[in-house]
Amino acid sequence: MNPVNLSTQFAGITLRNPLITCSGTYGFGEEYTSYCPLEALGGITLKGITPLPRLGNPVPRLAETPAGLLNAVGLENPGLDEFIQSYLPKIRKLPTAAIANISGFSLEDYVQLARALQKDSGLAALEVNISCPNVKHGGMHFGTDPQSAQEVIAAVKAETDLPVIAKLSPNVTDIVGMARAVQLGGADAISLINTLLGMHIDIYQQRPVLANTFGGLSGPAIRPVAVRMVWQVFQAVDLPIIGMGGITTWQDAVEFMLAGATAISIGTGNFVNPQAPLEILQGIKEYCEERGLASVRDLVGLAHHDR
Amino acid sequence: MNPVNLSTQFAGITLRNPLITCSGTYGFGEEYTSYCPLEALGGITLKGITPLPRLGNPVPRLAETPAGLLNAVGLENPGLDEFIQSYLPKIRKLPTAAIANISGFSLEDYVQLARALQKDSGLAALEVNISCPNVKHGGMHFGTDPQSAQEVIAAVKAETDLPVIAKLSPNVTDIVGMARAVQLGGADAISLINTLLGMHIDIYQQRPVLANTFGGLSGPAIRPVAVRMVWQVFQAVDLPIIGMGGITTWQDAVEFMLAGATAISIGTGNFVNPQAPLEILQGIKEYCEERGLASVRDLVGLAHHDR
Amino acid sequence: MLTKGQVVVHESLGDEKHKLKRLVLKGPIARTAQAGQFVAIQVQDSSISSFDPLLRRPISLAGISSENDEITLLYRVQGRGTEILARAKEGEALSIMGPLGHGFSLPEAGELWLVAGGIGIFPLYPLALSALSKGLTVRLFWGGENQSFLESAGLSSWEKLGIPLYLSTLDGSLGQKGLVTEQINDQLRQMSLSSSQIWAAACGPKKMMQAVTEICKNVKVPIEVSLEERMGCAVGACLGCVCTLIDETGAKVHKKVCQDGPVFRGEEVVWDESC
Amino acid sequence: MLTKGQVVVHESLGDEKHKLKRLVLKGPIARTAQAGQFVAIQVQDSSISSFDPLLRRPISLAGISSENDEITLLYRVQGRGTEILARAKEGEALSIMGPLGHGFSLPEAGELWLVAGGIGIFPLYPLALSALSKGLTVRLFWGGENQSFLESAGLSSWEKLGIPLYLSTLDGSLGQKGLVTEQINDQLRQMSLSSSQIWAAACGPKKMMQAVTEICKNVKVPIEVSLEERMGCAVGACLGCVCTLIDETGAKVHKKVCQDGPVFRGEEVVWDESC
Ligand SMILES: Cc1cc2nc3c(=O)[nH]c(=O)nc-3n(C[C@H](O)[C@H](O)[C@H](O)COP(=O)(O)OP(=O)(O)OC[C@H]3O[C@@H](n4cnc5c(N)ncnc54)[C@H](O)[C@@H]3O)c2cc1C
Ligand SMILES: Cc1cc2nc3c(=O)[nH]c(=O)nc-3n(C[C@H](O)[C@H](O)[C@H](O)COP(=O)(O)OP(=O)(O)OC[C@H]3O[C@@H](n4cnc5c(N)ncnc54)[C@H](O)[C@@H]3O)c2cc1C
Ligand SMILES: Cc1cc2nc3c(=O)[nH]c(=O)nc-3n(C[C@H](O)[C@H](O)[C@H](O)COP(=O)(O)O)c2cc1C
Ligand SMILES: Cc1cc2nc3c(=O)[nH]c(=O)nc-3n(C[C@H](O)[C@H](O)[C@H](O)COP(=O)(O)O)c2cc1C
Ligand code: FES
Ligand code: FES
């Protein structure tokens, strides 16, 4: 039997396998190395950065919920300059593809970040996190308005020669409309999904657990919503999808690929099991082997076929 | 110590306690009586009805997910005539308040249902489920478009003398906008939340588990989203809220009340523990007692107060 | 009834490779239970409030001992829920709802033909006991993977009943090689009995029950079958578990496996609906 | 390191009413561990794939025995996670990440003053052992609810060390009635020792650590405190567990309790940030 071809290529990004880690859950790549060698990963997505450094929200920033995790880190990050000076040199040397995740509170923020990050940075791609409030437009989130989303992606696309991945928020009525918008904006790929907006109240203190009141819900609890969105976007939009949201076991990863994800990304699952990526990769490989599939790419969207 | 006053009154509905059961999870009231006497409940919400009988979707209709349940029952119900003839006489005799849940696929459907159900039916209120596709408008859901939602509620309100509760879908960008819309339509109260749209794929069969592909996600997994929406609507809209979504323990119920729910409703939690309503009621009572609260109504929205 | 059943025995049933388990629970459920009924069991000790897995699991009553207030559940470790259930230790208390649904009916006289496929055998044993104690003649047709499976799944208890057993295995390692339906056809052919004296009760894979129903229809033997469906509430409140039947008027109607079944008359079942 | 720790001992610690537990796990973690470090433990046997509760729980190393490849965790049953953990039986394997974070430093010479509030005592015991084996003088200031608590939480092991113990209880049932800070002030007043020879290490409620830090600052005693925060990754990757410190330039900076701590220099901690 020939070994399964794990490598994958999409949107100008080449990965040794379809396994990525999610922005905000894997630091800048160095934190998990004693649990999961970076050589084993297709790629990592770095913590979201903004033009200026941010201290983020006060603690508590985390709350556990049934099969889920609420976080309100508030985009703490060292800022663009420090990222380029202190982090990028190390990131270039990482033995896996590194995708930068950029966030902004105005169109100009995104433009500034995109301009500073080009192919020569050594990064593999830019993931554009549009789940942020647009402070210039009354706090309306870029990620919930198709037009703003399209504009942001188009602006980023115009500034960088890196492949651009639009990361969509699930807190919308019409995810397909959002996907179409970022396609019009020129996105090369789509990441699905960011966190669901949620909250948890401490009934003894009678106040929200998170200092920020609201937080983003991630983990296995949201998987059914994420798989549904991947499925819908796969059917409607012809762009490669990076699927994420609750992936913890190899079965979850296969589910996302069958739904239409070309690559899959592990976030909260790393906290549960820091070796999850290794186990998932092994599981995907065996799943393909047992079915005589030559390449992991053969899994993509398979559940859409009528049988 | 005086006993805690459990009774609650809102929108012209009087309940012996704030505990209701959710539409679609408690049949027409007779199924759970050997586990939980109806006398113990503030009220029950009946299975959603439509003008004509519906067989609903094929099976599988259910899929379990982490801390959640996907269902795609497809509004199976006996239809309005049969409901009135065979069910209503029994429902009138139930020893608890009964709220009818009405669903439609056009404005006329809702009008027809509302017209047939008046105060003299013995029902306590009408809950209007707007999470249905409007077949006359390209399948756009009533529950995801503020204008349609307002129209439906206004039409129902014009036809019935029963209190009207608008049940909102969480699959929207802006839940507050939807709440404002149904308030403009004349809703007397708001039920929050219906299920999140999700799906699950059987990786061995390589196809969706549910015959209907998509289903509604309920259960503890969605609680953080539901609490967040209750919180947001409580802050923005001056209507009583019936909170639901993942309530399984008394702590969950208290969390919803602190977030702003005047009454709370138990759905999937009944499947997990058919005595959940009894345990929840007891828990709420003791919680109030320990804090010297005279009435459960004192809990409503308490977590919004600055301390 | 919602009760805490205390684990009295929890052990492997036969060869471990078949992943079969025997679970005996102490509790008052036995007093009112009937063969063919089931319970909805919480797979984790209920003192833990974990909501994953969320739902109860339906398991048939495979033994009902009202004298000892004990019920026996026999199950195959299938997925996550039963895997967790398999870890329950003696002395732990598991939350059970039951007895649920409607069991098999018993004819007043004549012969009862039991037809089982695989682990469909489990609910038929208490039925055989009831029938025998009523003085009925009982035969068992049972098909399984191989000899090891049949032995693991309780063959010796059946042998002790002293009734005729017609066994089939897919590999021929025990009984006749092939399907249980072939055995039934053979017996029908050889038989002197008028088919009007026979009642059948079947439990097993849907395809098997459908085929057996077909045979029974042809020879006018009334048959009851025990259906399976994914369950939410297990009491008829959620409409999660419907199956399609043909009613007297010839119309298709939905029935709830949990409440109206799990046992239905075979002729009424619409097998080709995804049910 | 991610390992499966086999449960060697799991028992109540002292009077059950205090809900304290002693858990000894076999595994290679002990070889590299240091007092003040912690592990992130999965509360359910990892052969079960349940995602509720989802996260690991941080627990300090309360005993490190590299000869036996054993670590001891002492914990209080607090909520859902520790309740489930409390059910782990001998022989089960629990998934542990660790050792994590940076532990306490030890002075080269002089006196080490240990200050504990409540169950903050647990990580201080291995620190005392290291200090004593290094030839340092050690004193313990420990405040708790009442005599029963202190006895349950391991007082006798401390007495065996033969070091001076300054105990306080809220109700005066053992030691001095009141707070541990009063005892420290008393000793500082009576003491001949120059404060430059003293190092302090504190673990307990935030308010207590803040007050002790204040005292130490005044007399120029360097103090290390062990902070707690809700954790996601426990390795510095998620920024869930930050605390605020003042750096050399006087600027407020965030540090990660899991990776940069949990032990920090008390003077650097900004206590009034919600951290
Ligand atoms: C009335 C009835 C009686 C049954 N009696 C027995 C019995 O005596 N012995 C026995 O071994 N099994 C019996 N089953 C099947 C048993 O319920 C399933 O094997 C079990 O639910 C699988 O759960 P799991 O978590 O191990 O598997 P998973 O695949 O992890 O389950 C996932 C979900 O699917 C549902 N599910 C999976 N398979 C089935 C199935 N075949 N029927 C219904 N729901 C299913 C589960 O309840 C759960 O919601 C019976 C089923 C029904 C409906
Ligand atoms: C570095 C460190 C070392 C610790 N060492 C010990 C120890 O040796 N012995 C001991 O008894 N306890 C210790 N704790 C506290 C222990 O982690 C919590 O008591 C435990 O996580 C509570 O979990 P639960 O599920 O029982 O409670 P729940 O209240 O149900 O927990 C809900 C969530 O809150 C988090 N949480 C709750 N309380 C705390 C807390 N105080 N600190 C951090 N997260 C919390 C949990 O991790 C979980 O995510 C330590 C905490 C930290 C950060
Ligand atoms: C602690 C934490 C921090 C996160 N930070 C970011 C971020 O900076 N940028 C971003 O686009 N997404 C961020 N996310 C979202 C994740 O990248 C991912 O989309 C989401 O968590 C769903 O995947 P999961 O369920 O596997 O975690 C963060 C998630 C978590 C849990
Ligand atoms: C099996 C099932 C059927 C449902 N049917 C209806 C319905 O007919 N009408 C309706 O408005 N909501 C229906 N719902 C939604 C519930 O009423 C409730 O809003 C939702 O399940 C969230 O609450 P829970 O998490 O407590 O179940 C149904 C839910 C389930 C699980
Ligand atoms: S499982 Fe709910 S109706 Fe049968
Ligand atoms: S817990 Fe993730 S950074 Fe500390």
From TrEMBL, chains A, B:
Task: Please state the pathway this protein functions in, per its UniProt record.
Answer: Pyrimidine metabolism; UMP biosynthesis via de novo pathway; orotate from (S)-dihydroorotate (NAD(+) route): step 1/1
Listed GO biological process terms: 'de novo' pyrimidine nucleobase biosynthetic process; 'de novo' UMP biosynthetic process
Provide the cofactor list for this protein: FMN
Please name the taxonomic classification of the source. Bacteria, Bacillati, Bacillota, Clostridia, Eubacteriales
Instruction: Using the UniProt record, name the top-level EC class of this enzyme in a single word.
Output: oxidoreductase
Question: Which family, according to the similarity comment?
Answer: Belongs to the dihydroorotate dehydrogenase family. Type 1 subfamily.
Keyword Cytoplasm carried by entry: yes
Report the protein name in the record.
Dihydroorotate dehydrogenase
Gene Ontology CC annotation, any one = cytoplasm
Where FMN binds, per the record, is at 23, 47-48, 101, 129, 167, 193, 219, 245-246, 267-268
Q: Which organism is it from?
A: Desulfosporosinus hippei DSM 8344
Functional note? Catalyzes the conversion of dihydroorotate to orotate with NAD(+) as electron acceptor.
Which PROSITE patterns does this chain map to?
A: DHODEHASE_1, DHODEHASE_2
From TrEMBL, chains C, D:
Q: Where is the FAD-binding FR-type domain?
A: 1-106
- Residues binding FAD: 57-60, 74-76, 81-82
What keywords does the record list, in alphabetical order?
A: 2Fe-2S, Electron transport, FAD, Flavoprotein, Iron, Iron-sulfur, Metal-binding, Transport
Cited InterPro entries: Cyt_c3_hydrogenase_gsu, Dihydroorotate_DH_ele_sf, Dihydroorotate_DH_Fe-S-bd, FAD-bd_FR_type, FNR_nucleotide-bd, OxRdtase_FAD/NAD-bd, PyrK_electron_transfer, Riboflavin_synthase-like_b-brl
Q: Which Pfam families match?
A: DHODB_Fe-S_bind, NAD_binding_1
The free-text cofactor remark is:
Binds 1 [2Fe-2S] cluster per subunit. Binds 1 FAD per subunit.
Q: State the PROSITE patterns in the record.
A: FAD_FR (PS51384)
- Tell me the superkingdom of the source: Bacteria
**One biological process term in Gene Ontology:** pyrimidine nucleotide biosynthetic process
MF GO annotations:
2 iron, 2 sulfur cluster binding; flavin adenine dinucleotide binding; metal ion binding; oxidoreductase activity
Enumerate the cofactors the protein uses.
Answer: [2Fe-2S] cluster; FAD
UniProt lists the family membership as follows:
Belongs to the PyrK family.
Query: Where along the chain is [2Fe-2S] cluster bound?
Result: 233, 238, 241, 258
Protein name as catalogued = Dihydroorotate dehydrogenase electron transfer subunit
Look up the coiled coil feature and give its residue ranges.
none
